Every structure is written in C-alpha cells, then in structure tokens.
Amino acid sequence: MDKKLSKDAYGGVAGKDYVPYISSGSKSGGNIAVLIIGIILAALFAASTAYSGMKSGLTVAAGIPGSIIGSAFIAIFAKQKGILGKNLVQGMSSGGESIASGMIFVLPAILLIGSKVTFLQGFVVGVGGVLFGIGIASLVHNYLIVEEHGKLMYPESMAISETLVASEGAGESMKYMGIGFGIGGVITIITSSFLNVTNNVISYVNESFYKWKFEVEVNPLLLGIGFIVGMDVSLMMFAGAILSNFAILPLIGYFISLGQGSATVWNNPDVAINAMQVKHIAGSYVKYIGAGMMLSGGFIGAIKLIPTIISSIKETLNAKSSSSNGSSSAGNLIILGGIVIGFIGGFMISGGNVGMAIAGSILSLFLSLLFVIVSGRLTGTIGTSNLPVSGMTIASIVIVTLLFVAMGWKTPENNRSLLLFGTFIVTAISAAGGYCQSQKVTFIVGGDKNEMQKYFAIAGIVGAAVVTGVILVLSSQLAMTGDNVPFALPQANLMSTLTAGIMSGKLPWVMIIVGAFMGVVLFLLDLPVMTIAIGFYLPIATTTIILIGAFMRLFVEKISKSEKVKETRVANGISLSSGLVAGGSIIGLVGIILINVVKIVKAGEPSGFAASNGMAYVILIALIIASLVPILNSKVKDAE
Could you list the residue ranges forming a coiled coil in this record (predicted)? Predict the structure, then answer.
C-alpha cells in the first residue's frame, strides 16, 4: 500500500492546526547510530558536491538521495527510530551538501589569485558562516515554517517528505544509485588521472579563417547532472556555449587576423595579437565577456530581490513582535557562536589589521543577516536547487570590495582576506536555505525542530571541514590556468576576476562591459541570464555532455507508453544519475588523493587508439548504453 501525506500538508489549514504525519509518541529520531550515519553522509555529500560543483558549476540537492540512502541505513542500524531518524539523516545530508554549494563559490578564488589558505582559516570562516546562517534562520522559523504554511510551499521539502513517507521503496532506489555509482566509478578510474589509460575528450578545433572549438568530455558525473537538471537548464547552458564558441570566438578571430604590428595579448605579452590561437582567444578575451555576463546576471538577480528583501524583513519583524516562539535557547547560542567565531575569523584572516577585522566582520555579519532571511523565504518558494546564491554573493562581494578599496586595502593579501569574508557570507546564505528546507520537512513529518537544529549544525561543521580539505587536496589542480583545466570553477573565477581586477585596476573593462550588456539583452528577452552565462563561461566539453544527459532523460520520457511508466523510469533514472555523480566525484577525488597525497598510484598515459577521439566515442557510447539499459528495464508497479 502506498503511503502519502495528508492534503493538509500542502496547505488548507493554519500551520498551528496542522497535524503532522507522526502526531503522537516521541518526537525524537536521534541516537548515536543516527548521528554517525548522518555524519558519514554529510561528509560524503559535501565531498561529492564540492568536486562536481567545481567541475560543472552546478550542484545537485542532497535531500532526496540523502533520504533514500538514509532510509536504507536506518532500516539496518536504527530501525526503531523509523521516519524520524530518516528525517534527521536527510537533514544532515542536506547540511553537508548546502555548505559545499556555498563555499565552492568563493573559497577556491583565493587559489586563483595566486594566494594560499590554511585549513584552519577556511574551517573557522566556514563554521562561523554555518552557525550564523542557522542561528538567524532559526529566529524566523515560526514565521517561515508555521505561520506561512500553505503560502510558502517549500517544493523540495515536500518532495523529500513524500520520499520519507514512502520510504519502504527505498531499496529499489538504492539499487539504481548503486548501479550508477558503479558505472561512474569504473569510467572515472580508467579515464581520469586515477589511471588515465584512455582519452575521454572528443575534440575538434579549427584554427583557420573561421576559428571555433567543439569538445565533449565523456564524464559520468556530468552526464548524471544533465539527466537530473533536465532539458531546459541544459539547453540554455549549451546555448551559451554555442554563442561563445561559434559566434564570439570566431568574430574575435576574424578581427585579429587583420591586425598588424607588434601588439600583444593584454595579459600575455609573449603572444602577438595576430598570432593568437583558439585557446588564447578563449582564455584572454571570451572568458572575460562570460565573466561580465555572470556579473550582469548576478546584479539583475540581486536587484530583483529588493522587493523580497524589504517584504521579508518587514514581515519577519512583524512576526517577531507578535510571537515569542521564534528561537530556542540553543538557537540563540548558535547565533552567538556564529557572531563570536565570525569576529575571531575576522581577526585571524586580517593579518593584524584591526580596522579590517572589525569593519570586515561587521559588514559580513550585516550582509549575511540580510540575505539569510531572503534565502529562507526564497527556499520556500523555489527550493534550494534554484536558490539565487550567485546573485546574493556577487552583490555582497562587490559591497565588501568597495569598502576595501575605499579604505586603501588593495594588496593581493588584502584580496585574500576579502575573499575569506566573502566565504563567510556565502556559507551563511547557503546554510540557511538548506536549514529551512530541512526544518520544513521536520514540521511536515512531525519531528523535533530543536533536534534537527542541532543535527544540522553538526552536519554543517562537518561539511565545512570536508570542503576545506577537498579544496586543499585539489589546490594544485584548482590553481591551474590555460587551456583544458580540470576544474572550470565558473563562480570562483568570477569572484577572483572581479575582486583582483577592481583592486589592481587591471580589469579588462571593455570585455566585462560587453558581457554585462549581453546579459541585459538576455534579461530583456526574458531568458535565464545566469544559466546562459555559466554555459558561455564553461568549456563547451562540459556543457555538451550535460546536454547529452538531458537528451537521455527526454528519450526515456518520450518512449514511455504511459504516465506511470514514465514516472517510474524517470525516478529510477534520477537515482541512477545521483549514483553517477557520486561515483564520478568520490572516485575521482580518491584517485587524486592516492596520486598526490598518498603517492601510491602512478597515472598512465594513453597512446595509440586509446588516445584518439575514436576511443572517446567508444566510452561515450558505452556510458550511454550502460546508463539507459537499467532505466528502460525498470519494473513498474501497478502499471497497466
């Protein structure tokens, strides 16, 4: 028998009158087994999200996969805790993922400006952001979760709640995630730096009159992301890549062919303008147009948030004045902890500059306060997957940068401090979104909000440690520049370009402004500016394989004969794709650790057919078939 939530879970009654799924008995779902399972999953999702997010510019929400995996482990190790234990585990999974989704936007930018960050600095700033974001969000819990029940729908929270309620089917989902993990792991082992025994990039570059570049990276985690996000997002990103590689790049290529004299590339004096190859045009010119598009998209998003900011603060203040149930004593301690650690971190990262420490900390806390409230409200409308973290972060970074410039703090070391303040802000914003989403699930299924608060905070701290560690392990690869870098880092590249350019006065403003106006045009055409801009900025090899994943999902939908069959296949496909993402990212990270840290694996070098486009085509076809066959063979329950 299928279990479902009551219709009141979606509204129709006041929040104070809603009867949760578990309406009697103990509200506690926690014990040591649940905590250990949650910590393990928080660490896994943090590592996976950090790796895949830095590679693709997209992150995958962990709530549903976390609830599926958590259901299986709870059934084995803490069966008596049932759905309440499963809820805590999914919340901790979301905690690890949401912290990673925030920190990777800014922290890697420190490496891109040629500076370094210690584990302690990254960890302290991350933990401060986690605690402050959770603490401020807890202040508005009653308003966002209870009073606005049925008005703020929290779409992803409801999907997670339904998954938990129907969790007896988790075994089937686990099977498909396991298949995906295996496929992703095997292909990653043979194609990445783990063994590197075969080429996995299909590449065509034309250096003649009409310069262009087309590539496909055969990467299981990117294919899985494409299946999960679907056709709309994937197609918009690919449109940006087409504009970049087949319009802007050839246009610049045409004009440089007319160049005369000894003029050189603005940031590479060793290359003459009229001798530029595709890689030079892409890296020194097209890249900055893409940065301008993302900057424009971020500002447009921030401007569009102004009414939401005003109404959120106004309604929050009204709600707080009429209700004293907003936050627990634990919540107040968490806020205080966030503020104290924020100031400690401020002094730690300011290099002895007391003025910078105080001013930077106060401004970071204020901007975090502002956008955390907005983040919580927007999560209730569009979910965490679509949360405009980029827009809020860009607006915050620009404000902090202007403060630094006004105070004369313009050295590379000052820029490093600025980016660490930015990491605090983005972590708080992202943590608040994940926290509110998890608390809504707790409200719907009937858990203890204070217990979720504590477990989520632990997961966030674990996530901050793991993400900082992952970034440091990958530091040599993240800092690479030039053509075919292993990690695209679109958001972090934007942050480093923006802050370093403003501070040094060497930002290529013509290209930035061109990109910004292209973003305005996209906005006037009612197109998703940031999505297209990220596609414009990312290597076309990345956007192409993401699009192939989306086409796989479309194919599955089109050949399904009934709605029930389609629903089952797509659900299993998303589970398998989550496994592809996890397998590709976790195994890829393990390979890098074994090579660079433990030094027990030596990467091979493909040669002959293994190094050709032909072998990459073979792997692509094998990946598609291996992924599609299990999905199309899905057993449909109660299908006609």
Answer: none
CA distance linking residue 49 with residue 613, whole number of Å = 29
Separation CA 282–CA 279 (nearest Å) = 5
Q: Which residues contact 286 (CB under 8 A, 6 or more apart)?
A: 244, 248, 249, 252, 536
Instruction: Examine residue 282 and state whether it is found in any structural domain, yes or no.
Output: no
Q: What was the pLDDT predicted at 268? A: 83
Per-residue DSSP letter, 245: I
**Under a CB-based contact definition with an 8 Å cutoff, are residues 466 and 62 in contact?**
no
pTM of the model: 0.88
> How many independent structural domains does the chain possess?
2
Distance CA(45)–CA(384), nearest Å, equals 15
CB-based contact 369:423 (threshold 8 Å): no
Residue 32 reports pLDDT greater than 50: yes
Task: Decide: 582 and 260 in contact? Cβ < 8 Å.
Answer: no
Residue 204 forms beta bridges with which residues?
214
pLDDT value at position 480?
A: 81
| pLDDT tens digits, 527-562 | 999 899 999 998 999 999 999 999 999 999 999 989
- Cα 604 to Cα 108, 607, 619: the distances in Å are 28, 10, 17
Domain containing residue 458:
26-167+289-494
Per-residue model confidence as pLDDT tens digits over 97-131: 999 999 999 999 999 999 999 999 999 999 999 99
Taking the C-alpha atoms of residue 397 and residue 344, their distance in angstroms, rounded to an integer, is: 20
Name residue, tokens 């402050």. Answer: 132
Residues whose CB falls within 8 Å of the CB of residue 608, separated by 6 or more in sequence, listed in order: none
Give the three-state DSSP class for 152. strand
Same domain, 189 and 151: no
Report CA 266 to chain centroid distance, whole Å. Answer: 32
Q: What is the 3-state secondary structure (H, E, C) of 439-455?
A: HHHHHHHCCCHHHHHHH
Could you tell me whether strands 201-206 and 212-217 are parallel, antiparallel, or unpaired per DSSP bridges?
A: antiparallel
What are the DSSP E strand ranges found in 517-602? none
pLDDT(400) > 60: yes
Contact indicator for 544, 220 with CB cutoff of 8 Å: no
Q: Could you give the CA distance from residue 347 to residue 362 in angstroms, rounded to a whole number?
A: 12
Mean pLDDT throughout 132-152? 89
Q: Which amino acid belongs to residue 359?
A: A
Mean pLDDT, rounded, for 409-424: 95
Mean pLDDT of 175-202: 89
* Residues present in the chain in total: 640
- Are both 200 and 299 inside the same structural domain? no
Quickly state the pLDDT bin for 526 (edges 50, 70, 90). very high
Average pLDDT over residues 562-568: 91
Co-location of 141 and 265 in the same domain: no
Query: In the predicted model, is pLDDT for residue 9 greater than 80?
Result: yes
